[in-house]
Amino acid sequence: xxxxxxxxIISIAAQAAVVDGTRSTAELSQISAAxxxxxxxxxxxxxxxxxxxxxxxxxxxxxxSSDESRRAAYEIAVAVCNAEGLCxxxxxxxxxxxxxxxxTTGTTAEFSAIASVAALSSQVQAPxxxxxxxxxxxxxxxxxxxxxxxxxxxxxEVLPDRLSNMAILPLQLRLVYQIGQRHGQQLxxxxxxxxxxxxxxxxxxxxxxxxxxxTFGKLAGGMLGGMLGGAxxxxxxxxxxxxxxxxxxxxxxxxxxxxRSLSTGDMKALFTRFQQEAETLFPKVQDRxxxxxxxxxxxxxxxTLRGR
Length: 308
Fold this sequence. Notes:
Number of helices: 14
Radius of gyration: 19 Å
Structural class: mainly alpha
């Protein structure tokens, strides 16, 4: 992949971020940061230009140098459009036009699966709690559940499917929902998302981080701006997802155990402490991550999220 390919892909991602008529400064900043990690010196200018005066996608698509870069452009656009839930009509139209311009193949089934993930991220659910008194978590029960989910999200980063990381946020949100239930809290999806956002775990941010590692790491092999590539990039992604899920679970558990009385500052301090703990723990569970990855697929995770 060339520097021109990288610039075009980032331009398409920025267009995808604003095509619904909204202009999220945070989302555009995340795309700019991803572009900067590619070594694009004018990353912010590229993103701003694409967001304010977008070039026709037909022209952009024709300028990409390979099938792999065209594939990457489509996947990242889909990820950005689905970052906060189901696509709007405008986003769907944009993706259809982009798919035609890029001449991507086999996208219908994949897009259906991606849309399912997005729907799950916007409608977080957990198994119903029986009526009556809510049983208190047994010693070590939540610790084991949090560790298992952290390992699963890390395994998704190892899968060859670049879009498998789209299931990470729904898994994290479901984990928080389940932890809250076990502590007797009645929650809805918005409350769970707000808590995750307190720790900086937004869909767009995580997707861009993961796609930078998987997509550009594979295509560029690390030649763009010294970016992580190959196995190193995937290992880094697994570590980040493991640490964020582990920290989110433990911080949420303490938050709900104390009746949601912790301040935002205290919660962030907890999250940071558990992230550091997770980074120390990760080398000890790497073999488990690889084992889980070998027996996992995006479709199997989607089935789990749907309760199948």
